[in-house]
């Protein structure tokens, strides 16, 4: 037991008053044969049925419909994005609460809004969904003919898009801690190993070995192809309700113990993510996460770190205090997160984004739910009662703590 009290909630957070009671996950494909809206409607219906509920009982919808950048395309609701309002309109009923989170770390924000809605009585049963689309054409191509505003200082020089964004702190980490890009092979192969075991994953039955990783082309030095999650079409939905109502539903509830969002420490130009900003804000995020949940990170059985780009894994491991600063590269390379190794931290047991496809935090949240509710099947890990799901970067995303027990 840490110094954090599980019996009090000085933060004012609705600790363990709201639970996940059902879920559904579509197959994750490079290009689906149906619209994103159709995939999401089916996932939402399946999640409601999984929770043992009827659609008429759903009175809340929360999501974040931020579209990943790709060739400058305009977002179209129901096709390239799916908003809460769009989904509520297609499922029918008379929802009392329909909202969307506008920010980075989309699932963290969506979960927090759903928790607050249920705890305040604004809704009783809420669907939280995330839907991702892979547009055709060149990924992250630059369609701009003119550049205005802050980007005029970066885009003309080639500093454009997320690859440039992550290459900056990745290079900083390599140089500061004498790390080698080859060490990242242990991250990517671990994610792909676990994703290959999951039926709905894009990489199902397709693990990756070290030699294949090391032979991948460099996209934006030192980022290579396999350091990036692959763009996909897919949708997932979770049903949340109060802990009291959850008692009468068919599956063991997984309680939301706390959450926190990252806040950039300084005003920067777009995509300017220095390593100190990331790790410094990550330390503060974790402090607030422990305060809201009453659980120290050293007590967490199942951390699921975000890996939209592989260096995020190192950053989250250090922000969470799971290894010393500057040691994540050695920790991982020595088997520290190997889910098949006794005593290791299974930080990518759900495959993450690198092992499933770009689902923006869904694999992390889903793995926490499946393991803590006892629904992971042959992938079940023993003794899992607490978990944390991380989303985006520590300084620009967030994390949610889950518990199988309502302490």
UniProtKB/TrEMBL annotation:
InterPro entries: Thiolase-like, Thiolase_C_2. CDD domains: SCP-x_thiolase (cd00829). Coiled coil: none annotated. This is Thiolase family protein. Residues 291-389 form the Thiolase C-terminal domain. It comes from the Bacteria. SUPFAM superfamilies: Thiolase-like. Pfam families: Thiolase_C_1 (PF22691). Signal peptide: none annotated.
């Amino acid at each position: 037991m840490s110094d954090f009290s599980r019996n009090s909630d000085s933060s004012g957070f609705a600790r363990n008053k709201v639970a996940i009671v059902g879920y559904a996950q579509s197959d994750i494909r490079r290009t689906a044969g149906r619209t994103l809206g159709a995939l999401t409607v089916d996932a939402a219906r399946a999640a409601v049925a999984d929770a043992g509920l009827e659609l008429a009982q759903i009175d809340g919808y929360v999501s974040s419909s931020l579209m990943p950048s790709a060739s400058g395309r305009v977002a179209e609701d129901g096709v390239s994005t799916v908003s809460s309002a769009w989904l509520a309109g297609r499922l029918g009923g008379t929802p009392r609460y329909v909202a969307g989170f506008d920010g980075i770390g989309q699932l963290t924000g969506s979960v927090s809004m759903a928790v607050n809605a249920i705890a305040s009585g604004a809704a009783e049963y809420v669907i939280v969904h995330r839907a991702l689309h892979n547009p055709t054409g060149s990924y992250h191509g630059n369609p701009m003919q003119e550049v205005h505003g802050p980007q005029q200082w970066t885009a003309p020089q080639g500093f454009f898009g997320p690859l440039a964004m992550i290459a900056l702190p990745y290079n900083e980490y390599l140089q500061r801690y004498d790390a080698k890009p080859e060490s990242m092979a242990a991250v990517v192969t671990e994610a792909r190993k676990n994703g290959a075991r999951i039926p709905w994953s894009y990489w199902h039955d397709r693990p990756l070995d070290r030699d294949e990783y090391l032979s991948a082309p460099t996209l934006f030095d030192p980022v290579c192809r396999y350091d990036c999650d692959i763009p996909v079409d897919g949708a997932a939905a979770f049903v949340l309700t109060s802990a009291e109502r959850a008692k009468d539903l068919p599956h063991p509830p997984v309680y939301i113990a706390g959450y926190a969002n990252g806040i950039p420490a300084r005003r920067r130009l777009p995509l300017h993510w220095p390593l100190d900003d990331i790790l410094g804000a990550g330390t503060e995020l974790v402090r607030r996460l422990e305060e809201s949940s009453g659980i120290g990170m050293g007590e967490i059985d199942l951390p699921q770190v975000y890996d939209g780009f592989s260096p995020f894994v190192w950053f989250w491991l250090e922000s969470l205090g799971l290894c010393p600063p500057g040691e994540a590269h050695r920790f991982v390379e020595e088997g520290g997160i190997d889910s098949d190794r006794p005593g290791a931290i299974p930080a990518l047991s759900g495959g993450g984004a690198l092992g499933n496809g770009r689902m923006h935090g869904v694999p992390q949240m889903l793995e926490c739910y499946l393991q803590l509710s006892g629904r992971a099947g042959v992938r079940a890990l023993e003794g899992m009662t607490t978990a944390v799901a991380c989303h985006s970067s520590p300084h620009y995303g967030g994390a949610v703590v889950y518990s199988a027990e309502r302490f």
